Amino acid sequence: MQKVTILYERLSRDDELQGTSNSILNQKQFLEDYAERNGLTPYIHIEDDGFSGTNFKRPGWQELIAKVENDEVGCIIIKDSSRMARNYLQAGLYREMFHEKGIRLIAVNDGIDTINGEDDFTPFREIMAEWYAKDVSKKIKAAVQTKAKSGKPITHTPIYGYIKDTNDKDKWLIDPEAAEVVRRIFQMTVEGLGIGTICKILNDEKIERPSYYLGSRGRGIFKNRYDRELPYAWGSGTIIKILKSAEYAGHTVNCRTTSTNFKSKKQDKNAPEDWIIFLNTHEPIIEQATFDLVQKLRETPRKAVSCGEPNPLTGILWCSDCGAKLYNHRKSKTEKPTHTKLTDVYHCSTYKLSNQKFNTHCTSHYISTEQARDIILTAIKNTSGYVRDYESEFIERVCEFSADKRDETAKNHKKQIARNEQRISELEQIFRSLYEDKALGKINEDLFNEMTGGYTQERLELRTKSDKLQKELDECNADSVKADKFIEIVQRYTNFDELTTPMLNEFIDKVVVYEGEWSEGINPENKRPMGTRKQRVDVYLKYIGDFSVPDMRTAEQIEADRLAEEKLEAKRKYQREKVRAYTEKKREKAGKSA
What is the average pLDDT across 321-347? Predict the structure, then answer.
């Protein structure tokens, strides 16, 4: 089998900046002229366009090595050593491979031709090529950092949902087709659908996944590597990435990742506090309020159960005593062949997920899903009705309510910050005393480190808490609750007869559930509750908190409702006494029979 000559060309983005002399077209012409002048035919071209010399996973190079391993190659010609690699260690290994295979290697501009023997200067040239790559990498990294801090996006291509402005490469414009899919993904999340369900819906409706959508249109990093066989195979990772991207709210987020080694293409994730974020830099696809709502919803996992879809109240109901989330318990039980009973209730998670009977940390705080939904719907309906009928009065009351809350919060935060600062001052005095004892030789280094370790941790925790409280205080003083934002939500809805998941997520901030109380207390004999159970539930609405709608009833209506409630309670009490009497009579009869 006649072996071929390979003319190998490589061009990186860094080389493009140096001018056209290194272009793929010029390299091809240069190598063809050399091969034909020296009778090195037949030849084929293998190229890597847009790949760094520090990367050996480039497709053209992999094809070349495959041909070498199959003994198809007699000669390899490159323009210079840097076209093959900018990593002298790896380059040395490949040169050794070519030598063992009996392959002639020619680097024209470097005067290297292995048919004339090894060139002693080749390793030094390769070291210089690697140093050059390292230097270029540092300069590019510095340039990227400068651009990142200027507020311009440092990504080469916009994310799914946006396209570049043809007149300004640093400006993003909305891609209408993709943006509509993004909006739908966010809306489905607000509606309470899980990630897996969203993926299935998009797949069933044959909506192209981002990599296929961009790649098939020759855009982005997927244009040369997207799976053409699976255009609609949406993955959970893709949905999660879309939901987390603040770019869809109109912001630029730079420096999410960093590369620690110029030889490696691996990107390490930066901590969120190290990201560089610029607000409102381009037209948003998603409103900020919707984006914030989705981030909050994602904090609470919602897993589907055998009884059906996840309960949308999970993550909204909270215990009034220990502050934990309420835990949903659903179970279906077949009572008759044609009837199945579904238990759907909430308990305090501190109580439920521990040894309930022996738990002293909290109590049940039991509430059924049906009761909770009725209470929430009533709160939304009453408040929305009040807003529509008395909008100006509502705005005035919200402002007064907000001011009272701000004053109370500010007072408590200032007291706690003062206490923290006092303790920090005490710790600093202790530190000075310990330093003096160490300097005078009263305590050794090990004892000093042991004693100061705990104090250092305490001071750090106190400082962190104070900074957090001060931030909340500054936000409280700078931005009061806006009644008009709540009004905007009310205006989006025309029907308040049924509590839907979007309504629940848009209107409700949280719901605090208190322990139920029984009108007749607990029976001392059997420890069972007696009477009517009443339970306090505080509903906190978005932007306005636990707003209390004024009682618009007349004095006569209030008195009539009070009398009706007393009559109803008397009837309940009568029914309970009848049941008790019947039970007692039955027990006595059973005792006599025995």
Answer: 75
- The whole-angstrom separation of Cα 58 and Cα 13 is 14
Spatial neighbors of 367 by CB under 8 A, at least 6 apart, are 317, 326, 345, 346, 513, 516, 535, 537
Q: By residue range, what is the domain housing residue 579?
A: 553-594
425 vs 332, higher pLDDT: 425
Confidence of residue 264 (pLDDT cuts 50, 70, 90): low
Ramachandran region of residue 560, left (φ > 0), alpha (ψ -120 to 50) or beta? Answer: alpha
Is residue 88 a contact partner of residue 116, using CB atoms and an 8 Å limit? no
Same domain, residue pair 520 and 580? no
Among 277, 298, 319, give the residue marking a domain's end: 298
Cα dihedral angle (211, 212, 218, 221), rounded to 10 degrees?
Answer: 20
Give me the mean pLDDT over the 411-437 stretch.
82
Do 442 and 426 share a domain, yes or no?
A: yes
Residue 345 lies in a domain: no
- Whole-angstrom Cα distance, residue 355 to residue 199? 38
End-of-domain residue from the set 121, 146, 171: 146
| Total domains in the fold of the chain | 4
Does 180 lie in the same domain as 132?
Answer: no
Same domain, 110 and 173: no
- State pLDDT tens for residues 365-384: 899 999 999 999 999 999 99
**What's the burial of 490, exposed, middle or buried (CB within 10 Å: 0-12/13-18/19+)?**
buried
In a domain, 467, yes or no: yes
Q: What are residue 492's phi and psi, to 5 degrees?
A: -80, -10
For Cα atoms 244, 250, 252, give the angle at the middle one, nearest 5 degrees: 75
Q: For 491, which DSSP code?
A: H
Q: Any residues with CB less than 8 A from the CB of 353 and at least 6 apart, and which?
A: 327
Pairing of strands 508-513, 517-518: unpaired
Residues of the chain with pLDDT > 90, as a percent, come to 21
Identify whether residues 189 and 50 lie together within a single domain: no
In a shared domain, residues 470 and 584: no
Average pLDDT, the chain: 80
What are 326's strand-pairing partners?
A: 348
> What pTM was computed for the model?
0.57
Counting Cβ atoms within 10 Å, is residue 559 exposed (0-12), middle (13-18) or buried (19+)? exposed
* Residue 137 in domain: yes
Tokens at 454, concatenated:
């705990």
Please report the pLDDT score of residue 115 as a whole number: 85
Select from 37, 40, 41, 7 the least CA-distant residue to 24: 7
Q: How many angstroms separate the CA atoms of 375 and 367, rounded?
A: 11
Q: Report how far apart, in Å, the C-alpha atoms of 20 and of each of 9, 11, 24, 26, 539 are.
A: 14, 10, 9, 8, 67
Contacts with 249 (C-beta within 8 Å, 6 or more apart), sequence order: 284, 285, 286, 287, 288, 291
Low-confidence winner among 183-197, 336-350, 470-484 (lowest mean pLDDT): 470-484
Dig out the tokens for 410 from the structure: 């500010």
- pLDDT tens for 31-42 read 999 999 998 989
